[in-house]
Amino acid sequence: MNYSPLIQQLIDAFKRLPGVGNKSAQRMVLHFLERDREGGRRLAAALAAAMDGVGQCCVCRTLSETEHCGICSHPARDHGTVCVVETPADVFAVEQTAAYRGRYFVLMGHLSPIDGIGPAALGIDVLVQQVQNIAVHEVILATNPTVEGEATAWYIAEQLNRPELVERGLKVSRIAHGVPMGGELEYIDGSTLMHSLSGRQLLSLAGKTDNTA
Amino acid sequence: MNYSPLIQQLIDAFKRLPGVGNKSAQRMVLHFLERDREGGRRLAAALAAAMDGVGQCCVCRTLSETEHCGICSHPARDHGTVCVVETPADVFAVEQTAAYRGRYFVLMGHLSPIDGIGPAALGIDVLVQQVQNIAVHEVILATNPTVEGEATAWYIAEQLNRPELVERGLKVSRIAHGVPMGGELEYIDGSTLMHSLSGRQLLSLAGKTDNTA
Questions:
Q1: What number is the ipTM of this complex?
Q2: Are A104 and A71 in contact (CB under 8 A)?
Q3: What span, in angstroms and rounded, lies between the C-alpha atoms of B103 and B59?
Q4: Who contacts B53 (Cβ-Cβ below 8 Å, separation ≥6)?
Q5: Do B43 and A16 touch (CB under 8 A)?
């Protein structure tokens, strides 16, 4: 004995979500049916609207329902600095820090030859063109510090290593890898610690000069 | 900087689900937008259809899109045995055992005076009427073994304790509480162990009579 067809269909639809199994899907469906029909209707409407209405920004490729996303069309952002990330969620994560005022370029993935994802699928040629045509002075490579993310970052850096861009003084940087804030050295893996050491930064002793004098 | 309005609206709609916070909702939305638009559309359609199409069975009150649910309209089920449960999920759980051939009565909750849920909201009067009018010979009280579930079970038992029903030989039973299969006595709470002891059952020694003789 199963649930009735409409309910079973809805459970199956929820099961397509990542990390949602049979029990969770059942719980979600019964929540809406037993306690929140209005919320269910609202979710259905929001889903239908987003699936058809959300496309990609024509400049930075992030998910957006307008031709230019909110960041690319913002007059106060520094359009000369481009932060290259893998997904729209990464854009949101960087935005949450409120420490970055430039714009983004979203690859929508990383290089993965085994899955048939090459430079063209990630729009790396579009990025290089943008850097050449628009007055970009720095490209920050903020792909994930995974094997694929690193490879993607190095590939992009290589593509940007062109005489005319070097001459123009284009800077290409990679986000720092190291010990996360609040972390303990004892529990950090060797690879991260190695990056943390090799990426060490000189401390400014300006405030202590009178002591050492 | 937030997500664009359509995306933010969708994230907020997913957040109404139990156990889904900001991060999970964001992950679900980006999954559909980046990788599975077809799945998103299917979920939207299934949700809309279920929210409007699913009602309650007129006999057992479980969620159903037809007037009589699949169990109540099944000719091979024993309509003289009624299993009283709290939610449609409980019906599904009992059905999964494939050990029960009777029908159900779904309270859609438990007695909770503090939330204003009394016997009428749970349809207990409907249940009593059904037992009086239809030839029911056993009512199995399968509400949860929580304080509210126990109180609900005892209340129903009291309502069914009527001279004409007792005369007719109606049996009212409660599901057994005890040590779950695969459990270890050492880690079972005292209350469960107490129920397990007081609910002990005599073992049939029929096969051993020649040994003890």
A1: 0.81
A2: yes
A3: 10
A4: A6, B65
A5: yes
User: Could you report how far apart the first and last alpha carbons of chain A are, in Å?
Assistant: 86
Interchain proximity B43–A9, CB inside 8 Å: no
Same domain, A167 and A199: no
H/E element, B84: strand B78-85
- Give the long-range contacts of residues A171-179, CB within 8 A, separation 24 or more: A171/A137, A171/A138, A171/A139, A172/A138, A172/A139, A172/A141, A173/A138, A173/A139, A173/A140, A173/A141, A174/A140, A174/A141, A175/A140, A175/A141, A175/A142, A177/A145
For the whole model, what pTM was predicted? 0.79
What is the CATH number for B39?
1.10.8.420
C-alpha A103/C-alpha A134 separation (Å) is 12
SS3 of A140, please?
Answer: strand
Which chain A residues contact residue B19 at CB under 8 A? 24, 27
pLDDT tens per residue across span B10-53:
999 999 998 899 999 999 999 999 989 999 999 999 999 999 99
* Yes or no, beta carbons of B71 and A28 under 8 Å apart: no
Domain count, chain A: 3
